[in-house]
Design a protein that fits this description.
about 5% strand; mainly alpha; three-stranded antiparallel sheet; 3 strands; 7 helices
């Protein structure tokens, strides 16, 4: 994996973190499709980087990939438990919490440690690097499995397509209404105090 690809993945993850931390409609397509594409892309990249070599090296590379896959899925399942699922405008939304971000940071640290250990054991560096989209996709699939199951358990429908923009607009309206309500409540005691003073 070259530097450009690594930077693109980093930007994509950061965008995902920001978008989900601010909250977005829970669409089944958006929940499942990106992880599936990442797994497919990562699988292809690994197949291109894997040269086989001697049997011990092939077994080592396979073991490293397997361990990474298990850790990625387990981390995604754990992260999915920290995601807030709620109802807005009649359909489901979801939002990352502070704990979700903490889990992300821990998993990134685990990934770096795993890569260092794999290289220390003599695993093919090209295979380890190429597996990044693959394990990221598996992690997101694990998260999607937990979030999706929790969403289905609510009995509330998933968000339809193009609901994000409508939901944002409604959220801004609610914020404005709350702000006007707070201003009105604050102004009423002042008005009452003025009436008492005039009497």
């Amino acid at each position: 994996m070259n530097l450009t690809t690594a930077l693109l993945i980093a930007v994509a993850v950061l965008y995902l973190l920001i978008r989900r931390f601010t909250g977005e409609p829970l669409e089944a397509r958006r929940l499942v499709l990106p992880p599936v594409l990442l797994v497919a892309w990562g699988g292809y990249a690994v197949s291109q980087a894997f040269t086989g070599g001697t049997l011990p090296h092939a077994v080592l590379d396979g073991a490293v990939l397997g361990a990474g896959a298990v850790l990625a899925v387990a981390g995604g399942l754990a992260r999915g438990l920290t995601v807030r699922v709620f109802v807005r405008n009649g359909h489901l939304w979801y939002r990352y919490t502070a704990l979700t971000v903490v889990v992300w940071v821990v998993l990134i640290g685990v990934r770096f440690a795993q890569d260092a250990a794999a290289r220390g054991l003599g695993a093919d560096a090209a295979v380890v690097a190429a597996a990044l989209p693959f394990v990221l996709g598996l992690s997101l699939l694990g998260e999607a499995a937990v979030v999706g199951r929790r969403a289905i358990a609510t009995g509330v429908p998933f968000a339809p397509r193009e609901s994000r923009r409508d939901g944002r607009r409604e959220s801004r309206r609610e914020d404005r209404r709350e702000s006007r309500h707070e201003s009105h409540r604050e102004s009423r005691p002042e008005a009452q105090h003025s009436d008492l003073g005039s009497r």
